[in-house]
Amino acid sequence: MNKPPLLQVNNISKVFGATPALSDVSLEVSEGGIHSLLGRNGAGKSTLVNIIAGIYPPTTGDVLFEGRDIRSLNIFTRQELGIRLVPQHENSFPDLSVAENIFSGVLPTRGGLVDWKQINDVAAEELAAYGLAVDPRTLVRELSSIDARKLNIIRAMHSGAKLIILDEPTTALTNRERAELFTFVRELKARGTAFIFISHYLGEVLELSDAITVLRDGRMFPVDTSDHVSEAHLASLVAGEEVELAHRAIDRGPDADGVFLKVTDLHGDNLEGVSIDVRKGEILGVVGFPGSGAREFCRALFGLTRLDSGTITAGGQKVALPSPERAIAEGISYISYDRQREGIMPTFDVNENIGISSHAGKLRALGGFVNLALQRSLSEQYRQALKIKCNSIDDSMDSLSGGNQQKVIVSRLLNTDPRLLILDEPTVGIDIKSREEIISTILDLTHRGMSTIYLTNDYEELLRVADRLVFFDDGRIVTVLDNTDITIDELTAIRDREKEAV
């Protein structure tokens, strides 16, 4: 007799008020299997996994786990059965130790007191068993991004997880860290752990998955993985239409004779003598591991990390070491890699989020007031130009999908009329259609003369858009190359070689 699938979702539908979120969705996950979910933001992925985890009840349909109907079970009972959700955003306790996080909520006691020896000893055994080489007494905030992701999975395994739902687990990880995480997941898969894997990165979905389901507007589109499946095919399924990947036009490059930004001998937070020019209309791609100085360089130009010395010239004029206010006044704008903490104002509406950075600039009216009519007019123009999906510019930011939130952030910075746009992981965690719309907007503006510094760990994306590549390590620029017929493998080899040489 064949063993039933670990998880069976049969004909699930979900309606919120009068709005259908899911319609007749079915899927199966086998023991030791990896089933990926793809879809644009708002396609229904989060609703489906919340139903599986027990956060939402389905409107109709069945959920079976190990052959048992679990529709009536709450999230805590489902966790006891072995269903664990590892969300995209950090859910650990950063100021507690690794061991305390593993045992969170169930600290063993002895004689009425917490048994710290048992906690640390057992945690050390589990860390060793799962290949995470950290001291169990280490505070979680001191962990690297990849070790923090692994810890979240180990916490789930400690609690007896049989099915782990990974929601965008590779967000903001480097290519090397992604590969390390995938090795970790495959090792657990080999032991029988099952995974539901949610990602916007089509390449990693194809690399990791046993089965793939695309959700679009709440409806399912199973992918036949028995034959070769291309990223282009997945992209068209996700978007519901053919998606053309944006590329830098060879004949529309930067002004070779014009330099907008000139940086000379910058010293500061993890920066040691950095010098580089950024040409008018150029897209300068930035490559570097965390702590290499790549992100610190981007943030320092906007005044978000410390600069001790050096000179910065923008548009031919020497400028003081920047603060965000001064940077914006000089025509320099920055998009943070952390949209939730440094990008959006979630309780403000779309109109306010777009206009806020221009209140001291073109939106400033007589007497220091804000020209609210002009702000609404410009916000509406950006809503249409970037195809921001919302009912109106009066919608709150936290009602928008991640891709549309990112479009609002891009609109805010473009509203400041920047001459240099610094992009730090501008498309992380957003769907492919929104990604290409944002990239196309940036390419169009650089063709008109705006300069761009582009930092991303998505090297396929970087090679599509960058004119030059600058490699950072140990706070220094170690290599600068024209982006001419460079492959991802070659880029990675250069990055690793320069790392070893420093």
UniProtKB/TrEMBL annotation:
The keyword Cell membrane applies. This is ABC-type sugar transport system ATPase subunit. The keyword Lipid metabolism does not apply. Gene3D superfamilies: P-loop containing nucleotide triphosphate hydrolases. It comes from the Bacteria. Residues 7-242, 254-499 form the ABC transporter domain. Keywords: ATP-binding, Cell membrane, Membrane, Nucleotide-binding, Repeat, Sugar transport, Translocase, Transport.
